[in-house]
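Q: What does the assembly look like in three dimensions?
Context provided by user:
Components: two
Sequences:
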Amino acid sequence: DAKTTQPTSMDCAEGRAANLPCNHSTISGNEYVYWYRQIHSQGPQYIIHGLKNNETNEMASLIITEDRKSSTLILPHATLRDTAVYYCIVRLPYNNNDMRFGAGTRLTVKP
Amino acid sequence: KAGVTQTPRYLIKTRGQQVTLSCSPISGHRSVSWYQQTPGQGLQFLFEYFSETQRNKGNFPGRFSGRQFSNSRSEMNVSTLELGDSALYLCASSFSLLSGLQETQYFGPGTRLLVL
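A: Here is the predicted structure of the complete assembly.
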């Protein structure tokens, strides 16, 4: 699975959009981009995933660049409860279920 | 639909003891994976079970073992506990096919194990 690069930390004002970037320049054609988040000492929570089209669900939007070498997770109206570590992962949808989490981005939403 | 559940949530053991952790996957999910998470090493894959068979295995010693039952519930066991086994143990389930196709993994809340 390809490696990802994320900023170590980011701050966001409550009620504003949080835009979390991820670089995955070595992604292969059939690897998906997944986003999870982990609130302190809890299990990782699935947020969203995509292959090449932009995706949106009730939690967030995922914007993938046309060359698929980077993506951005958007939380449209961040709340204090969105404070967490956000992980961007690229993986194949078959065979090996080994989820490789990097260090992630620690997002702090401030009042 | 209920999420992944893990029991117990917290556990304190002493060196040399053994421990068994339990995981109930989301209904309909046949794949269960186990992970160890520590501040220093991050999230590390232990093993994956599918239809009562171990399908993938990470790089952990034989003291770490697991099994899956016919209802897809899974247990993992750690024998001869060491101080370094203190960690958050996470279980994740996913819908999967025999061919290996995996869908999104959903994680449980974890079991926090402290070895004294």
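Follow-up: The longest strand of chain A covers residues 84-91.
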